[in-house]
Amino acid sequence: MDQIAHLSSYKIFTDPSWRRVISQCREVFNDLHQNLETNSQSDTIKTETVNLSDQCLEANQKYIDIIENELRIISDQNENQEKFQILLQVWKLCQIIFIKSSPSGTLLNDLQEWYRTTNNIDPMIQNIFSSNSENPQNLYLDEKYWICVLMAVVQGRIETARHLLSFYPIEKAPVLKSIKELLHTMPNLSTHGHLSLFEFKAKWEYWQKKCVQVLTSENFQGDENDYLQIICKLLCADERTYLELKPIFNNWYYMLISYLSYSNPTFNISDLHMSIESGQFIREFEEDLDEFDGIIIKIFNFDVDVVTNDCVTLFSNNFFSAHFLDILFLNGKLQLKNEMDFTSSFRAESSIPVHEQHMTEYAIQLLSAAWSPSLLSLHQTAFDYLIKCKMDQSGIDYIEAYLERIPLTDISEMEASKIFYIAFQYGLHDLAFSIGRVMQMRALKSGLYGTALSWNAKIKDCSFGNILAEGMMQEFFQTNDIKVLELTESLSKEIIYSERLMFLNKYREFYKLAFSSTKCDRAESLKQAASLLVQLLEVPNLIPFKFMKRILFQVHDLVDQNVFGEDQLFSVLKSIQFYENRRRFLTKNSNSSELNECNLDDEVAEENKWKSLYEKLSIKIAENFVKNKIEF
Amino acid sequence: MFENKNKLEKIYLNYNASKVRWLSDSSITPSDFFCLGSAENLKSVSVWKLDPTQDEFEPILLSDTENLDGFVTELRTKSFEEFFLSTSSGSVYHFKYSHADQRLVELNKWSKLDNLSSINGFDCNNDRDELCFVTENGTINFIRLKSQTNCLSTLDYNELCSLNSVLYLKHFEIAVSDSLGRVKIWDSRSRENKKSCLSLFMEGESSSITCMANDPNKQHIIACGNLNGIIAIYDVRSSKKPFVLSQNHSEPVMEVIFHPFSSDSLFSSSFDGALWSWNTSNRGELKSGWEDRTVNLKNYLDSNRYTLNSFDLNNDKILAISKFALKMCSNL
Q1: CA-based, 20 to 30 A from A564: which of A97, A491, B172, B185?
Q2: Which parts are the WD repeats (chain B) (predicted)?
Q3: In sequence order, what DSSP letters do the residues of B6-75 get, joined into one string?
């Protein structure tokens, strides 16, 4: 696994915290699809049925919650910490831009929220408070104080900014009062939600005019480091100030968001697009741009390709793209490629919807990570995703191909049963049959007749059943141990597919009746045994040829007991004749294999036995004959 | 007949656990500790504690050990501190959790038993001086726990069939189930048994019995669940036909446990993720056989796609594990 560099990136899926995330996401995925299926299948459209886009949004939020939860649980030194954080950042942004946004809707609140959570300043603020807890009047002298205030302002956290500013002694800068006044009266999109956009815009412009007034008229002399002036300029949406504050922002997208939130708070997706086009902030950070920034640009441009291509390369797996594209598809926002595209030479590929491609890729990556047969639960997770690729039948084919290749040599019975059951559940009956065949052969090779029999009864394999029965009979005759026969005692009705097994079962009954019954009902059971034996002899070809001789010799042991009736004796004679004929036929055609199998060790003893059998039979028949004659 | 589920809480683990057991002296004494044996990716066993004062279900991992040689196939508690477990590579371990320093200590280990074949199940007898385990190769073996030498002995009889679980009925009697759907009663005092005392099976139902449980109050009643989802209750004193409960599980039954307080009801979990409580009530008579009873069902966990690997009862709480998730229901 480690040697194949291409696959080693999927090893991440076996990491414990990823396993937790994967299994939880799988549950959300399954629940979502199940809910949608039940909703679509129900005959009446209930009013309580939550509508589709809400469900998709909910599911996406659940995915995000899962990752956030995981970040909380794992320790800071965990190598996955960074990966999860990037994943979370991208996912949240995609949710805002692709799912939540509408062409005319405002993005301010969501993007500001995104900014706040992914660039959290709370730890810094708490630090300030805790290090200055004894003497709060010196709080404003802390080196990080102004940075916190500025960051609170750019992130739109006005309450926090005001709280921090309350620690600044007002004597030092009288202009502080007006600044605070401005902050207090700043129109907030959430509280003024009842206003229409136009009205809000008017309010905002009025407020910003006041900010400009404060900036130009007021006296900023008392302010040592111009911080208050900077704050005022930020409120007036002065572009230069934003550009100058580059160290605070760290990234161009944060700068862009805060600039837009003050210059045009009702910005929507097209405004965002235009700002990116103009490239005003991107230029500042030009030397630091990397792949991640490229992705953010594409997301802001509402370019869905970013999910399908760039994110896959960024995360080096399809975990995010599979889930997200599925949500987009269900939401109806993903357009299927045009199927009537005859000009395209890759027609086969383009007819598979892109979200299914990614789901299949993700499932295959999971399976590559789970290369050991004991990681069945990861397999089942992957299978869940493959099953949902309905448009293209390859989902089931992949499952079948994978299950076929799981090695069955070293795993335990229970695991093999589980794999068998999974194949059965997915309707892959041929595969289940072949699994059963391998397992029964494996059991037979280690001499476990019972296990082989249980697998055989499960898959009802006739030819192997016959071989198995013959093997068991051989074993029984060699060891004379009844436990071999007893293996069939619970199987009476189930083995009708194999006549040898049925014979074995009946033979067991006979043996029990003849040799293991208690003394009191011995006579009765012997009679039953005898009639059973004759029935077995009568059915043509039921008894395998090599055992006929032994069976007939068992007749020999019973003849003395006076248990055979007249007709039964004649049947016995007939079967002896048949046996003789067949033996002559075989010797003539020198079919040595079958002959050799039925040779007993001692030739002379055998001859004697035949002789005495004929003798006894003839005596009995004669006796019966005479009896009847006399009665007549 | 079907009542609503009770309060259900769950957390997610980062591995797939195969067995969960409460650590307590018996299933009636309430306890806050439980242990989990893993399957698949991690080969470990861990001990957890539930905080009874908290409202949320947030068990705390106290200690775990990661160097087992295979995944856990069976786990049984001896007391509130000690437990035994068997693994798929043919070993039996004896662990003790010391509350003082919160560590799991491996007291004893018997390994490489029976050619490394998977040990499917084991049980200890009441005095805890003997442990009997059964393997995939069809052998029944005994370990004498207190002696240092010559502790392992095997029954002469090899079943030629994969044996799935074993239970001690009385002090010297064991019930062994196999993958042909039979339950055999053996006398464990002698090692040269040629034949079992009794052999029980259902006519026409020969799928492998996966789990067994014995009634805490009456030693002669055992319940077995098999791969077809059928639960049969046998009375081992006679070889009459068993009482069959076969309604709700269409998939293999993973675990069967009797209710700790009333032996008239039992719980079962299966591959389809459902956990059912079967309540068989007497119809007014004090002592009626199992055949006369009506069965009421109560569902604790709905069927879903995730196999319920194992569960355990303690006092009024049930802990169940399915793929990566640990769930608890309370107020039985």
Answers
A1: A491
A2: 246-288
A3: --EEEEE-SS-EEEEEE-SSSSSS--SEEEEEE-TT---EEEEE--TT-SS---EEEEEE---SS-EEEE
Q: Quick one: pLDDT band at residue A437, thresholds 50, 70, 90?
A: very high
Give contacts of A486 with chain B, Cβ < 8 Å: 199
Q: CA A176, A181, A186, A192: dihedral to nearest 10 degrees?
A: 150
What value does the mean pLDDT take over residues A177-199?
Answer: 80
A603, part of any domain = yes
Mutual angle of helices A52-73 and A319-330, in 10-degree steps: 160
CB contact under 8 A, B14 and A17: yes
Do A253 and A128 lie in one domain? The reply is yes
Partner-chain contact A413 B42, CB within 8 Å: no
Same domain, A139 and A88: no
User: Looking at the structure, do residues A100 and A202 belong to the same domain, yes or no?
Assistant: no
Residues 178-237 of chain B whose Cβ lies under 8 A from any Cβ of chain A: 178-182, 199, 201-208, 210, 227
Pairwise CB contact (< 8 Å): A414 & B118: yes
Average pLDDT over residues A367-379: 70
Q: Which domain holds residue A625?
A: 543-632
- Whether A174 is in a domain gets the answer yes
| Residue labelled with tokens 């009441």 | B126
Examine the fold and report which residue of A217, A248, A267 is the final residue of a domain before the chain moves on.
A267
Judgement on whether residues A81 and A160 belong to the same structural domain of the protein: no
Q: Which residue has the higher pLDDT, A62 or B302?
A: A62
Q: How far is B89 from chain A (nearest CA, A)?
A: 9
Which residues of chain A make contact with B251, given a CB cutoff of 8 A? 421
Cβ–Cβ of A374/B71 closer than 8 Å?
yes
Mutate to test the interface with B, among A409, A481, A483 (most CBs of B within 10 A): A483
ipTM: 0.87
Name the band, by pLDDT with cuts 50, 70 and 90, for residue A594.
low
Q: With an 8 Å Cβ cutoff, are B161 and A493 in contact?
A: no
Predicted TM-score of the model (pTM) = 0.82
Distance from CA of A443 to the nearest CA of B (A): 9
**φ, ψ of residue A215 in degrees (nearest 5):** -65, -45
| Cα separations in angstroms, B179 against A27, A192, A415, A418, A503 | 33, 71, 14, 14, 22
User: Residue B61: phi, psi to the nearest 5?
Assistant: -75, 120
Q: Residue B319: left (phi > 0), alpha (psi -120 to 50), or beta? A: beta
CB contact under 8 Å between B306 and A490, yes or no, is: no
Query: Looking at beta carbons, which residues of chain B come within 8 Å of A489?
Result: 182, 199, 201
Q: What is the pLDDT of residues A13-53, one digit of tens each?
A: 777 778 888 888 888 888 888 888 877 776 665 555 567 77
Residue A520 lies in a domain: no
Same domain, A56 and A137: no
Amino acid at position A561, single letter: Q
Same domain, yes or no: A307 and A175: no
Find, among B139, B170, B175, B177, the residue nearest to B156 by Cα.
Answer: B139
* B62 contacts B102 by C-beta, under 8 angstroms: yes
In a domain, A1, yes or no: no
B22 touches chain A (CB under 8 A): no
In angstroms, the CA A254 to CA A269 distance is: 16
Q: How far is A529 from chain B (nearest CA, A)?
A: 21
Check if the beta carbon of residue A90 is closer than 8 Å to that of residue A295: yes
Residue B180 has its nearest CB partner, among A19, A414, A454, at A454
Distance from CA of B283 to the nearest CA of A (A): 32
Listed residue (B143, B141, B18) closest to B68, CA to CA = B18
Task: Provide the domain count of chain A.
Answer: 3
Shared domain for A35 and A92, answered yes or no, is yes
A425 → chain B, closest CA residue:
B251
Do residues A143 and A131 touch, judged by C-beta distance below 8 A?
Answer: no
In a shared domain, residues A198 and A218: yes
Task: Kindly report, residue by residue over B48-57, the tens digit of the pLDDT.
Answer: 888 777 667 7
